[in-house]
Amino acid sequence: MSVSKNDIYLTVSSIISEATDGQTLVTPQQLQGKHLRKDFNFDSLDVIKFIFLMEEKSGVKLPDKEIDALNLLEIDALVDYVVKHKQDA
Fold it and tell me: What residues are paired with 35 via a beta bridge?
């Protein structure tokens, strides 16, 4: 199944809002170049909630070792990872 980067940025935008109970609203364009911890002040629990929701909504597993190794808390890296793994599926 082919998915575009824009689709994933839109999903990430929605998940950030959901993970912060609507406290953080961002557009997909505002996500480029951003980091979950540094730019959105996500703590460990926020990150876990975000990762769970991202896996659920994208259908792509984000293994713990790859989250750190591939810097998947950086939104652009995460989007690239999800797009690549959706196409490989």
Answer: 74
